[in-house]
Amino acid sequence: MHERILIVEDEAPIRDMVAFALRKADMEAIHAADVEAARIAISDTPPDLVLLDWMLPGTSGLELARELRRDTRTTRLPIIMLTARGEETDRVGGFDAGIDDYVVKPFSTRELVARIRAVLRRAQVDSDGVAIGVLRIDHTAHRVYVGDAQIELGPMEYRLLHFFMGHAERAYTRAQLLDHVWGGNVYIEERTVDVHISRLREALRTHGLEGLIQTVRGTGYRLSEAP
Ligand code: CA
Fold it and tell me: Does domain 4-123 sit in CATH 3.40.50.2300?
């Protein structure tokens, strides 16, 4: 563990509150009060994730986010933006700048830590792979294992599972799955999702793991370790 989280925030009380919550969650907190200090901290030792306040004196957090995305060394560095309530247009701009998630102030540190964990896990899924229980996805090799046994999946079932493993414990509607897994620009009926979900479950059933992909009544599907 001990992920290093860089907190870029000009308000010291918020920085301290977040740092306290991170240490309690077994993570290391690094402080920066402005973009200049953040640049130095990042070039010194890149953190595992940046918590970036939107409103900073001088250069804004959004500008730093864009800068980090442009630099090949930090292009995949996970960023969670801290925004003030009601800055919806700003949030859209944040996603354009390639941020991974945002948290609206005032926030609960519990929620913040949960978001940090989710983003870190997603980043890990995309870079090399991640395990949930005995199920493991190796994204570099494009392979899925249960223990030592490899499971054969079709291309869509692989993409579905890859998405779910990076977004575990959250329910997604069929429309959201079409957007995230198939891509928003294609026209495909929502029923198609059900077809691929049942193929994925079939492949997992061989290993007794069909319960991992759960139907959420009235919503859609979720990957969860909890029965
Ligand atoms: Ca601020």
Answer: yes
pLDDT at 88 over 60: no
Contact 79, 91 (CB under 8 A): no
Q: How far is the CA of 123 from the centre of ligand 1 (A)?
A: 26
| Closest to 199 measured CA to CA, from 164, 149, 163, 156 | 156
pLDDT tens, residue by residue, 111-157 = 999 999 988 888 777 666 777 888 888 887 889 999 889 999 999 99
Mean per-residue pLDDT over the chain, rounded: 88
For ligand 1, the distance from its centroid to the CA atom of residue 5, given in whole angstroms, is 17
pLDDT, tens digit (0-9, with 9 covering 90-100), for 28-49: 999 999 999 999 999 988 899 9
**Local structure of 6: helix, strand or coil:** strand
In the reported structure, the alpha carbon of residue 11 is separated from the centroid of ligand 1 by a whole-number distance in angstroms of 6
Q: Give distance in angstroms: CA of 33 to centre of ligand 1.
A: 9
Residue 103 CA, ligand 1 centroid: distance in Å: 13
Whether 83 contacts 90, CB under 8 Å? yes
Q: Which residues are close to ligand 1, an ion, with C-beta < 5 A?
A: 10, 53, 55
Nearest alpha-carbon partner for 171 in 220, 101, 138, 128: 220
For domain 130-223, the question of CATH label 3.40.50.300 is answered with no
Domain boundaries, the chain: 4-123, 130-223
d(CA 88, ligand 1 centre) in Å: 17
**pTM strictly above 0.70:** no
